[in-house]
Structure prediction request, 374 residues.
Amino acid sequence: MRILFFTRDYTTHDHRFLAALAKTEHEVAYLRLERGSRQLEDRPLPEGVTAIPWAGGRRPVNFWDGPRLLADLRRVIHEFKPDLVQSGPLQRSAFLVALSGFRPLVSMSWGYDLLHDASRNRLWRWATRYTLNRSAIMVGDCTTIRQKAMSFGMPDERIVTFPWGVDINHYSPDGSVRNQPDLRKRLGWGEETLVLLSTRGWEPIYGVDLIARAFARLASQRPELRLVMLGNGSLSSQLRRIFVQGGVLEQVHFPGQVNQRDLPRYYRAADLYLSASHSDGTSISLLEAMACGRPALVSDIPGNREWVSQGENGWWFEDGDVESLTQALLRAIEERGRLPKMGRAARRLAEQRANWERNFPILLEAYDLALQNA
Prediction:
């Protein structure tokens, strides 16, 4: 089968899907809608995947690029002659495929397209319905996404729920990166130190400002607390100002962007994973933390509730409420002795439901369904 994998940009997740598809018997071609301003994935395309040159994939795109890109997409489809196109997000790449008239389309939600973009305005709502109506199958990563797609008219029988999962051998409670010392020892953090970890981007949707404010409230009275904040983003100045004003900057470690090879050691160095995201389907960062045997303290939103059970493998706090997060952190500190047991429960759940190697074949089953519905 000839598969055209048409995605918005080139991310770690795109690389993972393409690497897995390249190991199948199928012929796989890759098409990139745009090139964002940030470096998202530095690894080359997996061997066996063909990058198709076309009018897109060189810079960020806007509404006015649509007619030009649609015309060239039709050329690409005519020349490559795919048996199936997998594409997402819904209102961007998949929408162009729907406009082209090609069938069968396997549209794949990236979470934010249904949870956030679909409700932007009337035009985005229309584009969402249009794409779903012309998709043979839609793939989503959790029940929350499934229900949202159904609210836009997608029949339940044409939705495949596919938790992407993680490499549970790479993300594991044990192991170390070659030639890298234990992170806690390198930073001089002893057994008494309680390490909190945030891995989300420094953007408003991820609520990292709540994490900063809650930590600033507690850390000045709790000298054993440390916060590791991976990544960067538009809130950088605001976050540092919060820490400076709270007098806790010395208790925060900023590693910057961390590659996939090194990322597990940051999870292993932490006692508790934090996410204050205001919108998520199945968060890959949450699954990585769980696979590394770390309990989670997360915002009480539907996507998180599918993975975190109160008091079993983590806790929730009220979304957007810094006081609720502060109280939840106090509870975690007071119940520190329970964290290892909760981490083991998190690892068991990751093994059961978030194993990428076991979950990936569900995507191939979705392809078969799409061909049957074409």
The domain at 183-353 is CATH 3.40.50.2000 (Rossmann fold). Residues 176-181 have pLDDT under 50 and may be disordered.
